[in-house]
Amino acid sequence: MGIPDKTGFARTLYQLIIVTFLLQVYAGSEIIGDLRARSTDPILQTGEFLKYAVSWYLLQVGTLDIINTGLTNHRGKEGHLVHMRVLSNPNIRIVNAHMRFETIIDTNFITLHFRGRHIKREHTVVTEYDFDYEDTKKVYITMYEQYEPDGNTNVFSNAVLPLLGPCRDNTALLFYARALAQIPRSNFNVEVISFNQSAQCRFFRTGEKKTIGWRNTQTDTAFLEGKLLFETIIGVRDNFHGWFSADAASVPLRARLKAFFGYIDIDLESVRN
Question: For the chain, which terminal residue's Cβ has fewer other Cβ atoms within 10 angstroms, N or C?
Fold first, then answer.
């Protein structure tokens, strides 16, 4: 998928898109009350709807929504279908990101199927990962252009990668990070697939308890820190920090990423179930 601009806000938002699939955000007092009421809920919750604001300093450059629509089946395995939507701020013209992702995630936070849509002016670029863990032990990758309103498609790339074990796309890695955030560990790698290649994410430390201040309130969180051990679509490798609610739901509360200039913060605006 092409990148419309590799400088300034465009670089910053595309950096952010990669890391937001690992981590998220920050909450107001009314949101924390809801999270505490969910303390016995599992991480994969049908109907969970998380909405985030993406900011560079005081400027909001985009939004991110994560929606768990419930159980489905793929290749005879049951998993949750999770939708992720990334939208750039239409008032910032040099940033142009309108993307939708659908991932089927099993109870071990392993990807069963992935479909990504990059919506452009004249067509949509679709990428699909079909994971076959049982028979061929391979992931089948297809990329095609889809044109509206007739629905015609143009397949321009097919690839097959071997599966050496359980694998996660960026969305599944986010949910796995929610579980890891509650467990003290250090210096380990997680296998991922991103932009049609096998890769790894390095976690420096997880499960560290930290109290963060916001809106004159002190909030207990579970903290993790790591780094992507592969180049993103803008040719960089990024460190990330994430703060999660300290309860069983481990809802992402805050993410911070070093950007092209300064930092990007991702803030939770609302949580609904």
Answer: N
Q: Does residue 37 surpass a pLDDT of 60?
A: no
pLDDT digits (tens, 9 = 90+) for 125-136: 999 999 999 999
The total number of structural domains that make up the chain: 1
Within 10 Å of residue 231's Cβ, how many Cβ atoms? 14
9 or 158: which leads in pLDDT: 158
Is 217:32 a contact under the CB 8 Å cutoff? yes
Residue 1 lies in a domain: no
> Is 3 part of any domain?
no
Given this model, what pLDDT does residue 36 score?
A: 43
Whether residue 121 lies inside any domain: the answer is yes
Check: CB of residue 132 under 8 Å from CB of residue 75: yes
End-to-end CA distance of the chain: 33
Q: Which domain holds residue 212?
A: 8-272
Q: Is residue 2 part of a domain?
A: no
Residue 34 to residue 272: CA distance in whole angstroms: 9
